[in-house]
Amino acid sequence: MNKPSELFHYCPRCGQPILERTQGNLVECSACGLHYFLNAVIAAGAIITDDRGRVLFLRRARDPGKGQLGLPGGFVEIGETAEEAVRREVREEINLELEALTYLCSHPNPYAYRGVVYPVLDLYFTARPRALETLTVLEEAESFCWLAPEEIRLDAIAFPSVRAAMQWWLSRQQR
């Protein structure tokens, strides 16, 4: 994970060079007194299952993880709940409306993008689609596939947090 001191050389408020660097996730500006905390960004994803118990995966069209499998989801926008974000992302990516969401788990995810590793906290939900007739790939994915639990290969999944969420979900299916 990038440290704030590696990312910030100038104060985002006053533009002066950052001279004071404190430990952890804090950057202090000695010119204007700004204290900036670099905290985790929040993302939300959905493990969507069909009537046969299969999981819907997307094949990523872009980096990070281009060509690998992922789950529908994305970053939570300012003012949005995680539930609103996952519903919006699923609509934007694959044109599905979801039934009730059930919280599953959370996992940290180092998200490398354009030379910066962002600290992300991924929140995962399980869900069922309202109807599958509208399912189509719209954004950020090249295709989708349904996999039965026994067909899921964790090494084909793009991110450590998605693999961890799938392991958690799979362990609950075997009970």
Description:
This protein is an alpha+beta fold and 175 residues long. It folds into two domains: 4-37, no CATH class; 41-173, Nucleoside Triphosphate Pyrophosphohydrolase (Alpha-Beta Complex). Helix content is 18%, strand content 33%. It contains three helices and ten strands; from the N terminus they run αβββββββαβββα. A four-stranded mixed β-sheet has the order 7-4-9-8, sandwiched between helices. The protein has a three-stranded antiparallel β-sheet with strand order 1-2-3, with no helix packed on it. Strand 8 (102-113) and strand 9 form a beta hairpin. It is elongated and about 60 Å long. The mean pLDDT is 91.
Structural class determined from secondary elements: alpha+beta
Strand order of the largest sheet: 7-4-9-8
Low-confidence stretches: none
Compute the number of structural domains. 2
Radius of gyration: 19 Å
Order of helices and strands: HEEEEEEEHEEEH
| Helical proportion, percent range | 10-25%
Count the strands? 10
CATH class of the largest domain: Alpha Beta
Straight-line distance between termini: 36 Å
Write down the overall mean pLDDT.
91
Summary keywords:
175 residues, alpha+beta, Nucleoside Triphosphate Pyrophosphohydrolase, 2 domains, 3 helices, 18% helix
Layout of helices and strands, plus pairs?
Blueprint: H1 4-7, E1 20-21, E2 26-28, E3 35-37, E4 41-48, E5 55-60, E6 69-70, E7 73-75, H2 82-94, E8 102-113, E9 116-127, E10 141-147, H3 160-173
Parallel strand pairs: 4-9
Antiparallel strand pairs: 1-2, 2-3, 4-7, 5-6, 5-10, 8-9
